[in-house]
Amino acid sequence: MADGYLDDKWVQGDTNVDGYTIWHWYLMDVFVYFSHNLVTLPPPCWVNAAHKHGVKVLGSFITEWDEGKTICDKLLSTKSLLIHVLSGCLSLLLLWDLMAGCKNSPGILNMKRK
């Protein structure tokens, strides 16, 4: 699954049958759907597959590289802005949680700053 999720961008799957195949779900408690985008929410194919095997699925919010530094500078510029942005992110994740029918908190926060 290195180099990003490319074959799973289609909700109904792709011709590549191994596009999102995990053989050892029983070894996992949590699956983190991660990419190098600011916000990444797992598509239904991953959520359905994980939940079929009793595995929780997390999306991600990540800031990295120069663009991430700019975002962090803005997010961390004032305490009130930081609280506002983080509460907005939490609200979006909870909304996604409800829409996807999940019963777990679907988020991971990864902030990198020099």
UniProtKB/TrEMBL annotation:
Pfam families: Glyco_hydro_85
Keyword set includes Translocase: no
GO CC field: cytosol
Domain Cytosolic endo-beta-N-acetylglucosaminidase TIM barrel: 5-79
TM region positions: 81-102
Keywords from the named record: Glycosidase, Hydrolase, Membrane, Transmembrane, Transmembrane helix
Keyword Translocase listed: no
UniProt xrefs under InterPro entries: ENGase, TIM_ENGase
E.C. code: 3.2.1.96
Gene Ontology terms, MF aspect: mannosyl-glycoprotein endo-beta-N-acetylglucosaminidase activity
Record-linked Gene3D superfamilies: Glycosidases
Top enzyme category: hydrolase
Descriptive protein name: Mannosyl-glycoprotein endo-beta-N-acetylglucosaminidase
Organism of origin: Opuntia streptacantha (Prickly pear cactus)
